[in-house]
Amino acid sequence: MSRYHTIRIHHRQVNQEYSLQVPEDHYILHSAEDQGYELPFSCRNGACTSCAVRIISGELDQPEAVGLSPELKEKGYALLCVSYAKSDLEVETQDEDEVYELQFGRYFGKGKVKLGFPLDDD
Ligand code: FES
């Protein structure tokens, strides 16, 4: 028998507040979707950060969240597609690309990276 926790999700992009019960042994994103809630996602395997949230309170476990740096996990970010609830939780969705930019923006934003490749001369 799974233990259940209550999670409150503030989906900031659509200004909606969801409150639902999720089992401890299922990914939170999947449980929310099973119950008809639509949340941001893309890769669904902890790599892209589309599903990132800020944890306001509570605890979760995200051992497969390879797309999130230890630093950002420490700051309270989580990837819902690979997170398990460990207590009642309150989270809010990130600003668009917030986590991606926190992790990579300073590298990609810095140098003069030019898109495009040399064209063949013929
Ligand atoms: S959907 Fe890509 S990390 Fe969660």
From TrEMBL:
<dbReference type="InterPro" id="IPR006058">
    <property type="entry name" value="2Fe2S_fd_BS"/>
</dbReference>
<keyword id="KW-0479">Metal-binding</keyword>
<keyword id="KW-0408">Iron</keyword>
<dbReference type="InterPro" id="IPR001041">
    <property type="entry name" value="2Fe-2S_ferredoxin-type"/>
</dbReference>
<feature type="domain" description="2Fe-2S ferredoxin-type">
    <location>
        <begin position="5"/>
        <end position="97"/>
    </location>
</feature>
<comment type="similarity">
    <text>Belongs to the 2Fe2S plant-type ferredoxin family.</text>
</comment>
<dbReference type="GO" id="GO:0022900">
    <property type="term" value="P:electron transport chain"/>
</dbReference>
<dbReference type="InterPro" id="IPR010241">
    <property type="entry name" value="Fd_pln"/>
</dbReference>
<dbReference type="Pfam" id="PF00111">
    <property type="entry name" value="Fer2"/>
</dbReference>
<dbReference type="GO" id="GO:0009055">
    <property type="term" value="F:electron transfer activity"/>
</dbReference>
<keyword id="KW-0813">Transport</keyword>
<dbReference type="GO" id="GO:0051537">
    <property type="term" value="F:2 iron, 2 sulfur cluster binding"/>
</dbReference>
<dbReference type="InterPro" id="IPR036010">
    <property type="entry name" value="2Fe-2S_ferredoxin-like_sf"/>
</dbReference>
<keyword id="KW-0249">Electron transport</keyword>
<keyword id="KW-0001">2Fe-2S</keyword>
<protein>
    <submittedName>
        <fullName>Ferredoxin</fullName>
    </submittedName>
</protein>
<dbReference type="InterPro" id="IPR012675">
    <property type="entry name" value="Beta-grasp_dom_sf"/>
</dbReference>
<dbReference type="GO" id="GO:0046872">
    <property type="term" value="F:metal ion binding"/>
</dbReference>
<keyword id="KW-0411">Iron-sulfur</keyword>
